[in-house]
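SAMPLE LOG
Freezer: B-3
Tube label: C17
Construct: single chain, 141 aa
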Amino acid sequence: MDRYENRPCTVDVICYCGDEVLLIQRMHEPYEHQWALPGGYVDAENALDAAVRELNEETGMVVNWSNLNLLGVYSDYDRDPRHTISIVYYVEIGIIPKNFKFGSDAEDAGWWKFDRLPKLAFDHDHMLYDFLKKLFNKNKI
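STRUCTURE (predicted):
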């Protein structure tokens, strides 16, 4: 028997500066209180707008969608207990802001060194691995 399921679409954003990445501490399940990349559901909007909106809602960071780069699409069925498909973007900022707010679905936010990351929710460690591999290869050319 064929079974079709409409899986929800989400976005995640790797916002980085030098050797640090911006993470949020989740306020809700799944993975309540664990650290993750900023992100969330795509509403009645395109994915780039959702990425900009989610980054701003969860961290207060404002970026232009034209500065976002596509890392990839993560669609393993069990990557998230809600079976979401995530479109992952990355953006480099020039300087880490001294003060920034966090809100929406985040109970905290902070900058973490890539080599000192906490345990991450979902498959965000895999996303960051792919990102660093891409960044390293790009810088070698």
